[in-house]
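Lab manual, section 2.4: Encoding a predicted structure.

Procedure: take the sequence of the chain (198 residues), apply the prediction step described in section 2.3, and record the output as structure tokens. A sample record is shown.
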Amino acid sequence: MCHRMGKQRAYTLGARGEAMAATRERILRSVLDLSEEKMTIEITLDEVASRAGTSVQTVLRHFGTREGLLDAAVAKASAEVAEERRAPAGDPEAAIGVIVAHYERRGDFVLRLLSQEHDPRIGAVVGPGKLLHRAWVEEMFQRQLDARPGADRDALVDLLVVATDVYAWKLLRRDRGLDPDTTRARMFALVSAILAAG
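Recorded output:
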């Protein structure tokens, strides 16, 4: 009898833990979805709770404060971005395909973040994001960069950063209205020209 009650209690605690994790995930996803629709400063706890199908009190129980919630959402988004940008190093065409797919999914959101970088919390994300993009460029094109020992590596990396930046995607995709395939082809042409000239 005691053994059965212990098993039942462990099962109940496990189920409760899973339910809490699912609620936390719904809350974070609600913040991320809302941040794609409006400025972060405009997002209220009431909106987050409503979209997550829970109460403001539950949101605060999970994250403590609105700031704690936003910090956790930023950490989650950063982890998702790192995964989305994963590509085989040394394959420029694959790298451009991955980065354009990433921008198709998050480009408008990233541009919205960049427009808010005066906010210290957003600036804390955007600043490291720029460094991560440069590191991504160096990793993706390391083989091509190493094959040009006499070239100015920093200059080549600067040019590759510009050619693969979200603003390059915006100019082609949003401002020019090109489709994703044409955008990918133009960005690949830029990268190819930079690598050939280097």
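Check your result against the sample. The first helix runs from residue 2 to 35.
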